[in-house]
């Protein structure tokens, strides 16, 4: 599989993932509104979504030209 196709797949996965997390966060927020656990659960969901976003972004960065795989660190 060529690099451009891999990038398209990862970008598509990131978009689907972002939409999934958005639906989960909004759904949980709606269900927990007015309860004592709203803020705690909301913070956990935000941390999970942010972590997932960073992981997928790092995968995309490795596949882009000039990424980590193209320029390995040089040992002095």
TrEMBL record:
PROSITE patterns: PROKAR_LIPOPROTEIN. The chain crosses the membrane at residues 7-32, 44-64. Keywords: Membrane, Transmembrane, Transmembrane helix. This is Uncharacterized protein. The lineage of its organism: Bacteria, Pseudomonadati, Bacteroidota, Cytophagia, Cytophagales.
